[in-house]
Amino acid sequence: MVVSGRNVEVPDHYRIHVAEKLARLERFDPSIFLFDVELFHERNRRQRKACQRVEITARGRGPIVRAEACADSFYAALDSATQKIETRLRRSKDKRRVVHYGDKTPVSVARATATLVDESLFTQANGAAAHAHAEEAEDEGGPGHIVRTKVHTATPMSVDDALYQMELVGHDFFLFHDRETDRPSVVYRRHAFDYGLIRLA
């Protein structure tokens, strides 16, 4: 488990509290080998009631599962983020346990790809983590600045896989390398439980 803060000092008693909260999540997926927890204090005065943000990323042999929450304290934000990631892990576990007609249990993605795991996917060529955060930009007092950059490895996948990944991380969109077109594409959530797809020409 890694607990870090951006513009925030993380006390030891909070690290212990995080470890106790996340320990119970391992029962949903024993293959999880790392919980990455980030704390961030929102400097925007208009967000004063929800200025403490906690992001949790669970890494295992299967897809990365992520959740984030904002609240008026880091303890409340952690509780909310933990509930979200627990729901996503439980949903993923239930999906792996679905039994189809004919008494056939489908092979889980984690089991089917267990022999294909390439440790280099978790690091870049320069040895940095694949899910890296760039340094936070200095607060210049106004909107319209890029304050965060993320770099991810791009493994080619189908549209269905991209939708599954989007649901696991809980975002409204997901950028991926489309296996069919060999180009960057985006799936996104629309109203009434529909999805959209954007492809580059």
What structural class do you assign from the helix and strand content? alpha+beta
How helix-rich are the residues, as a percent range? 10-25%
Oligomer: single chain
Residue-averaged pLDDT: 77
Count every helix, treating DSSP H or I runs of 4 or more residues as helices: 4
Strand content: 15-25%
Reported for the largest beta sheet, the result is:
4 strands, mixed
Backbone CA Rg = 18 Å
Instruction: Write the H/E string, N to C.
Output: EHEEEHHEEHEEE
Shape: globular
**Strands in their spatial order, largest beta sheet:** 1-2-3-4
Q: Termini, distance in Å?
A: 41 Å
Poorly predicted residue ranges = 99-103
Question: Strand tally, please?
Answer: 9
Subcellular location: Cytoplasm
Family: Belongs to the HPF/YfiA ribosome-associated protein family. Long HPF subfamily.
Protein name: Ribosome hibernation promoting factor
Domain Sigma 54 modulation/S30EA ribosomal protein C-terminal: 145-197
